[in-house]
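Figure-free illustration: sequence to structure, shown twice.
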Amino acid sequence: MITTATVIETPLLRAKEIYPKDTVLERVLGEKSYALYDQMVKMSSNEYGLTQNWYYYRDQKTWLCKVLFKKKNIYWISVWDKYFKITFYFTDRYAKEFLETEGICQEYKDLLAATAPVGKLIPLVITIENEQQIENLKDIIEFKKNIK
């Protein structure tokens, strides 16, 4: 009998004493994913005035990057084996508004619509694999920045 084991992925950057500076991220993500990460960070900073702040979260036992516009949380970055994820969180009200907003990639709307809430928030988790996804993030960043 052949059985398949369920692979449970866990984020990397679990050592509290190793701050995720660029050299660490490049090693963990690999050349292709690090180039995408670097492009996304530069786009977020230069075009949208976002700042990246890495924090070690004891409850999750991992480093996460909180990306802010002034004091407003726009999205989170988590690092995995050779890729990274971007997570936006929406309240029910703004999730409905997001689904009705023109210009936002339909794939992301479908993904959010199919996602169950976690507490009072609905996460939109995007695994970044190519440059087009970074382009598609621009509309979501604008949306999040304009939420009052």
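We now fold a second protein in the same way, so the two outputs can be compared directly.
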Amino acid sequence: MKLIHLSDLHLGKRVNEFPMLEDQEYILKKILAVVDEEEPDGVIIAGDVYDKSVPPAEAVQLFDDFLVSLAGRKLAVFVISGNHDSPERIAFGSRIMDGEGIHMSPVYDGNIKPVSLTDPYGTVDIYMLPFVKPVHVRRFHEDQEIASYTDAVACAVADMHPDPSRRNVLITHQFVTGAARSESEEISVGGSDNVDASVFAAFDYVALGHIHSPQNCGSERIRYCGTPLKYSFSEADDHKSVTVVELAEKGSLTVRTVELEPKRDMVELRGTYEQLTLRSFYEKTSWQEDYVHITLTDEEDVPDAIGKLRIIYRNLMKLDYDNRRTRAGVQITGADEAESRTPLNLFAEFYELQNNQPMSGEQTAFMEQLIARTWGEEL
């Protein structure tokens, strides 16, 4: 059984106010070329089809064209909703499309049944678990203690009762503990959305979405395929790809990647204004068309630098300086540091900065109760 694993298309996304739809249309055509070459039995899209829960009409049309193209190739397609999607919109028309081999995840209702495919080795059961929070799962398990995302996903998986004699594939959209994030993903304060990889023990392959850099989680059996395009400069060194998964007999798994070449790359350049505007520096590169982040090292600001540089670097997205003045500026806590702290830690630091004194014991106790109540409603 050969499957192509995709995720996080984020159709309709804008990066630094640059619309990405043209690049997305281009990369979807590249993916179709991979599909034609690989001739898989199925294509998986593990969530975040769109960048917003109410996507622009152009993004919906683009995804519709992509689904029609896949359906014309007579293969199975599996699509789940991610945290950026509206589960109701992704689920719309799913019962009709099932008959054409296009399987859209329904809104989570505590009752996930597999779609079964067969090959010479037997049956492969494919389970589709859309992005869920603890509150979504608690609704169907009021008698169980579901305090965390790990609890929620473990409970949802237990309801599936996968047959251990068959090959089982899970498609889901969650943050597995230990995965390396990038700047273009949503970050939950204190890592409250972490899911422990142990909850996926029953599956021969777990097709994950949510994390934008391609990576395995402990083993190739649990994998993020990453985005097909770069959506932040923290991903500039990534090699975007689709993941090709092959399941032979039970216990036999092969995972490999096919690299994707974008219409425009995302690159970071550094140097003085004079260096970066030398024809010999840029003329033999694609930088004039690529999405560019430039860091100028000039000690003095260059008047209208962004306007002048865009004459050469047409898609200059971001400009900043690295010099004595900027290095002497205030250092702001980075996303990675903030993620490792609890909401109470972060609020306590903020309170002390604002009031020049720490919270009292009574104030701390009040905030603990307030945070527990608020997070309990949202999780």
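Summary for the second example: The longest helix spans residues 21-38.
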